[in-house]
Amino acid sequence: MKFFIDTANLNQIKDAQELGVLDGVTTNPSLMAKEGITGRKNILKHYIDICKAVDGDVSAEVISVDFDGIIKEGEELAALHPQIVVKVPMIKEGVRALKYFSDKNIRTNCTLIFSAGQALLAAKAGATYVSPFIGRLDDISTDGLGLIVEIREIYDNYAFETEILAASIRHTMHVIQCAKVGADVMTGPLSSIVGLLKHPLTDIGLKKFLEDYKKGN
Ligand code: E4P
């Protein structure tokens, strides 16, 4: 399972990269705004800074919603750096753009996926990744993990190469559950990655080992 961090915060990206388990970064316009990155020029520069901070794919989202705009923006983003994956929304024009990018060998991440039908359509159009938002489904009393299970079954039935990128991950249990049902990738906050290493018995055990070592030396 690949681990992506879902942030535009360079310090958090560097922390996760240093841990040695990071495979990529996902961003979205809200995450860029949260870091105070505004204006096209600054946003493009920030994508390059993110690419330099991580060894792996960096999803950069288009903000156009018409076909020509998505294509223009996506080609500009893809040309920025070889690590860039163009993030395209699951709308009609977005599906057309996925097919266009796929034919041009430009890698894509189809975002805002909330149903198995949308995931099927994105795979048919040649998306590199699909991003089902499991946390946002859970937020409205709908089974986010169940959607990952459905998409896994559909993709396996037809050997689609599109990777399931479980997004809107909120906590460590989401990560573990997604790993159990075969998501190819998860993207979440730094806390959902470093939280995996925590266990009180590890802390208690280590404390005792160090105390016993001191007694004998
Ligand atoms: C996916 O790529 C999105 O950036 C993200 O996972 C959305 O998560 P949220 O629901 O926590 O905003």
Description:
Helices cover 54% and strands 17% of the residues. By secondary structure, the chain is α/β, with parallel strands linked by helices. The protein is globular and about 70 Å long. Bound molecules: erythose-4-phosphate. Erythose-4-phosphate is lined by residues 6, 26, 28, 111, 131, 133, 135-136, 167-168, 187. Erythose-4-phosphate binds next to helix 7.
List keywords for this structure.
217 residues, alpha/beta
Short description:
The protein has 217 residues and is α/β, with parallel strands linked by helices.
Cofactors, ions and other ligands in the entry: erythose-4-phosphate
Could you estimate the helical fraction of the residues in percent?
40-55%
The number of E-state strands comes to 8
Number of helices: 11
- The chain-level structural class is alpha/beta
Which stretches are low in confidence, meaning pLDDT under 50 for 5 or more residues running? Answer: none
The general outline is: globular
Strands ordered across the widest β-sheet: 1-2-3-4-5-6-7-8
**What profile does the largest beta sheet have?**
8 strands, parallel, barrel
Question: Cα distance, first to last residue?
Answer: 42 Å
**Which radius of gyration do the C-alpha atoms yield?**
19 Å
As a percent range, the share of strand residues is 15-25%
Question: How confident overall, as mean pLDDT?
Answer: 98
Along the chain, the helix and strand elements come as EHEHHEHEHEHEHHEHEHH
